[in-house]
Amino acid sequence: MTEIFTGSFTQQEPIPEAGIAAANAVMQSGRLHRYNTSGDEIAEVALLEEEFAETVGSKYCLAVASGGYAMTTALRATGVRHGDKVLTNAFTLAPVPGAIAAVGGVPVFVGVTEDLVIDLDDLSAKLDQSNVLLLSHMRGHICDMDRLMAMCDAAGVTLIEDCAHTMGAAWNGVPSGRWGRFGCYSTQTYKHINSGEGGFLICDDAEDMARAIMLSGSYMLFEKHRAAPPVETFAKIKYETPNISGRMDNLRAAILRPQLRNLAEQAKRWNARYRVLEEGLANTPGLRLIPRPEKEEFVASSFQFLLLDWSPETVQSVLDRCTARGVELKWFGGAEPKGFTSRYDSWQYAPSSRMPASDRVLAGVVDMRLPLTFSLEDCALLARIIRAEVSAVYQGDVAAE
Ligand SMILES: *Cc1c(COP(=O)(O)O)cnc(C)c1O
């Protein structure tokens, strides 16, 4: 019997009842704008910022319209100007080089290792090209942060972290987003908490956060923030900083607050699913699993493996055979950028030289979403299907069928 998977890879869980009730209350009030509060009412957005700062242990937090906006704002607040080079990952998603381009910056791509993290040797060779690194913890894989920080500190390079895939994750006990000058998060539907669109920016420096708040469009109402520096910090900054609106609204904040309270619990559920897949695919000939270092505390919302040094035709054959059995895999090695899988060479506005070692890895990266609507049994079934199809193609059994 050929097993078929029938779940949807893009179906997230519903918004918790408490979030729906809070959203209804906001709508009934009509006060959706974060600064539209009555009397001494505290806006949902201000409360969410306070709660997020507490969750990750940062001094300050700003909720914004998207993860991309959070990164752009961090780059601007750091002082990146038109024409400045910014180091970033060759293996990431389009909003990351896009954020650099949005401030007129020029991405300098750093390679990826077989463990799907930034190649620290390549970074070391390129550190003298820029004084800012926008590090993307792509697909939740965290590099050796102790080594990376030592390198950046020695070279005087400022770190900004893209934590779109690492909300709730940590390296060596320090939360992702707390290593850099800024940590940036997304609350877009496919991330760890879901408001359709949205994001956060965290930092510990008062002037950095004052600039970020002014940039986000605070209309001089920064006193209504809670996870924010004291008003004196804004004395000069409020005149110097342009308003580039990208605020979060109370409706999104209302549905995010209960989800944030559940984050640690959800992380356990995600990782349980991840481990079932990992176990089911262990020792599949031709398939390389991505090691998860002991110092890395991850929050899986997707699963990757490598078909390293396979020909494009054989990888495509695996994808086709899996699709036929209901399993949607994405491939970073395809000739054309498709869905979410664009590569550094697809971003032609940001010219790059070829990185053969990274190209070899990217040509083999297979990626799968792991929504919480999948049960542990679903994950076991997914592993059985992938294992069978990878094995069939690997052993050249296709023709013999
Ligand atoms: C989703 C994502 C972002 C931010 O995305 P938005 O859609 O702008 O919220 C940033 N980096 C990575 C790697 C992402 O996947």
UniProtKB/TrEMBL annotation:
Family annotation (Gene3D superfamilies): Aspartate Aminotransferase, domain 1, Type I PLP-dependent aspartate aminotransferase-like (Major domain)
A GO biological-process term: polysaccharide biosynthetic process
What keyword terms does UniProt attach to this protein? Answer: Pyridoxal phosphate
Q: Where does the source fall among the domains of life?
A: Bacteria
Report the InterPro entries cross-referenced here.
DegT/StrS_aminotransferase, PyrdxlP-dep_Trfase, PyrdxlP-dep_Trfase_major, PyrdxlP-dep_Trfase_small
Q: Which SUPFAM superfamilies match?
A: PLP-dependent transferases
A single GO molecular-function term is: pyridoxal phosphate binding
Instruction: Give the protein family.
Output: Belongs to the DegT/DnrJ/EryC1 family.
What is the recorded name of this protein?
dTDP-4-amino-4,6-dideoxygalactose transaminase
